[in-house]
C-alpha cells in the first residue's frame, strides 16, 4: 500500500544515521570536556546536530565553539547559517529573526543568511519582513538570488497578497534578471489560485506555458493541479492534450486526470469527464486496467458521472485487459450511487469470469435487499478457482474484509453460502468480527452456536479464535466455558494461557472477582498454564472494580509466591520475577485506590521501597509482607530515600506504581504529599499529563486555586525539561514530549477552580482560556468555554457569555454539547429578563432556532443518543424563550415559534433527515409543554382557531396533553365562545390531573376556572368519586 511519506533511499538513511551517531558522540564528549575540535569539525558538528537532532543541539554546539580555549575557534557565517537553517526547519520564526539580528550585530550576514530568513518568512507568511529583507539586501549591496524571491513570494500565499507577489516577480525578472525555478512558479501560482472568479483565468495557464517553453522547466504535479483548477470545463481536454504532446512527465500523472474529471463533473460535463479518462488511457503505449486503478480510487463523482465512468471502463477493458480488483472498485463506485445496478454488473463479471469473493461481498453490501438471493445463487454456482485450499483462502479474505468493516450480516451470508466447508480460521475470523462489536445477548448466542458447529465438525479452534470467542460470551458463562475447555481437551495444557487471560479480562471488566479467583485457581491445577504475575494483576483489578478490598488482600498474600521461579539462583529469572511483582503491587495499590484505603496503599508503596531483605527465595514473600505491615506502622520514609534503597536491592517501583499512588493521594486530599512525591521522581521515571490532571482535579474539589497554579507551573517545567532532554536523543515516539504538554483537561480543571473562586473574575478565566487556545497541539472542547460562560452568568454578564459561545463556534470551530447549549439558553433568558436599554439591539430568536436545527452542530442527534428526554427538554427550553420575550419585552413572534414547531415535527416524521438519522428508536422532540407555549402565543395574538388546531395536531401525532395544553385549549375555546366544549375540556383536565396538580394561576387564565375558584365547590362527575 502506498503512503504519503517521503521515500528515503537506503544510502541516504545510512548517512543520516552515521551523522546522528557522530553528533551525539561529539556532543557527549564536549559536555565531559574530553575533546577539542577544529573549525571544520565544529562546522560539521553544528550541521549534523541541527539536521539530525534539534536546533537546541546545534546552538549547544555553537556555545561550545565560543567557549573553547585551546584551540580557540570563532563561529563563522557558515556556522551561524547552519543554526539559522535548523531553526527555520522547525518553524521557529521568532528565534530565526533574533538570531539573524545577532548575526547582523557581528557583521556575519551574507546572501545565504538572507535566503534562510526569507524562507522562514515564506513559511510563516511574514510579508512585511520579507519586503524589508529584500530592501535591506539592496541597501547593503548583497546580491539577491532566486531563493530570496522564492521565500518572499511564498510569504504572500497565506494572505493571498497578489499585488505584492507580482511586484516580487517583476523585480526578479527585470531588475535582477534571474531565471525563476519550479518552486518560484509554484508559489506564484498558489497566490493567484485564490483570486476571484471575475479575474482573468488565462494568466495561470500563460505562466505555466512560459515555465515550459521559455525556461525549459519540468512542471510538478502541484503546478499542474493549480492551473487545471483555474481552467473552464471546455479548456480541460485541449490542455491535457498539450501536456501529452509536449512529452511532459505530468502528462502521465493519474492525479492530474482525476482532478480534471472532477472539474468537468462539477460543471455538469459528464462527457468531458469520460473524455479525460479516455485520454489518460491513451497517454502511454500499452495502458492496462491496473494502470487505471489509481485514477479510479481518487474519483468521487456525481451519480451521472460515476455511471458514465463505470460503463466506459467496463466496455473498454473487459475483453482486452481484465483485472478483477479494478472491476471490484467499479462495483463499489456504482454501489455508492446506483445500488440497483450493482447486481447487473456482478452478473456481467460472473459471465466473463472476472469475479471473486470480494465481488460478491461488494454486491451484498451495496446491492438492494431484494437482489441478495440472486447474488447468493450466483455465489453457489460460480467456480472461483481450482483447489479447495485456494477457495477457502479467498472466502476467508472476504470474511475478514467484512469483519473489519463491522458488516457481520454480510459476513454471515458469505459464511453460509461458502462453496466449500469452512475451516477453523473461518470461524476464528467470525469470532474476531463479533468481538469488535458492543456485546449483546444476541451476539453471545450466535457465537456459541458457531462454536457448537465447530465441535460437531471436529475442528480445533485457533488460539486467536478462542481468545475472541471468550470475549463474546455472557460474563457469567465465561468460567464454565473455560472449565469445559480444560475437561474436554485431551491434553489440558493445550489450552493456551492467553485464552485464560482473555477470560480473566472479561471478569475484570464486569467486576466478577469470584470467577476471576476461581479461574486463577483452576490454572494452578494445570501444568503449563500456571498463573503468572500478569494473571495476579488482572485478578486484583477485578477485585478493584468490584470494590472487594479484603478479597484482594487475601488473594495477594496467599498467591503472590505462585509466580516465582523455582530456581532463584540464576540472575535473569530472579530479575524478571521481581519486575513482575512490581506490576502486582501496582494492581494492589489500584485496589486500595478504588476502595479508599489510603493507609494500606501507603504500606504497599513504601513497603516495596523500604525492603532491605535480599530476595533470594521469593516463596517467602507473603511473610515479608506481614513483616512490613508491622514494621511500617512506626516508620514511613521519604520516597526519595526509599528509591535509593530500592536500587540497592533491585526492586524499583515503576511509573505505574507512582502514578496510581499519586492519584490516590490526590483523591484523598493529600495534595501536598502527592505534589512532593511527584517533584521527587527520579529522572528515569516518566509521567504523563494525566497525573498532573489528577492533582488539578483534587485542587478543584478542595477549591485550592493557588495550589492549582503551582501544579500547572510544575507541569510546564516538567514538559520543558523533557523537551530539552529529548533534544539530545534520537527521536522516539514513545518518549515524545507531547505526553507531558497541558491538554484540554488540564485547562478545564484550572478553569473550574477559578469558577469556584470568588477572588477571580471573568477576565482571569478568559485570559486562561486564551492561553489554552494559543497552545499548539490542544484541540479545544466545549467544556472550557462552558465554564467561562457559567462564570459570566454568575457575574451577571449574560451578553458576555453569549459572546464566548459565539467565539467557540466561529473562531475555534468547536462543536457545542448539550450542557454548553443549555448555558447559552440561560444567557438568552437572562438577557430577555433584564430591563431593556436604549443600546440594546432588537432580539431575534432565529439565531437560536436555526442553531438547533443546523445539522452541522448535531445538537438534537447527540441529545437523542444520550437520552430521549434530553432532546425534548432542550426543545422546551427554546420555546420558553419565546414565552419570556412575550412577557418581558411584549414582543410576540408567534410566526417564528410556529415555524420552529413545524420544522421539529417534520424532523420527527422524516427518519432520513439529519441529524436524527442516528437515532435507532422512535424519537419525540416536541412534547405537550412545548405545544402549550405555541398555543399561548397564538391565544395572545388573537388566533384562537389556530390554537385549537394545535390540539387536533397533538391528537393526530399521539402526543399526551399536559395541564398547560388543557388551559390554553380552554382559553381558545372560550375566545370562540364554545362554552360547552370548554367545560368538557375542564372536566377532562380534572379527571387526568386532579385538583392538586393545577395551580391557581393556571385556573385563573380561563373563565370556567375563575368561576370554579369563586364558588369553591366541585361539580358532579358521572364517573368516579368526587375529589376531596
TrEMBL record:
<dbReference type="InterPro" id="IPR011990">
    <property type="entry name" value="TPR-like_helical_dom_sf"/>
</dbReference>
<dbReference type="InterPro" id="IPR002885">
    <property type="entry name" value="PPR_rpt"/>
</dbReference>
<dbReference type="Pfam" id="PF01535">
    <property type="entry name" value="PPR"/>
</dbReference>
<dbReference type="InterPro" id="IPR050872">
    <property type="entry name" value="PPR_P_subfamily"/>
</dbReference>
<comment type="similarity">
    <text>Belongs to the PPR family. P subfamily.</text>
</comment>
<protein>
    <recommendedName>
        <fullName>Pentacotripeptide-repeat region of PRORP domain-containing protein</fullName>
    </recommendedName>
</protein>
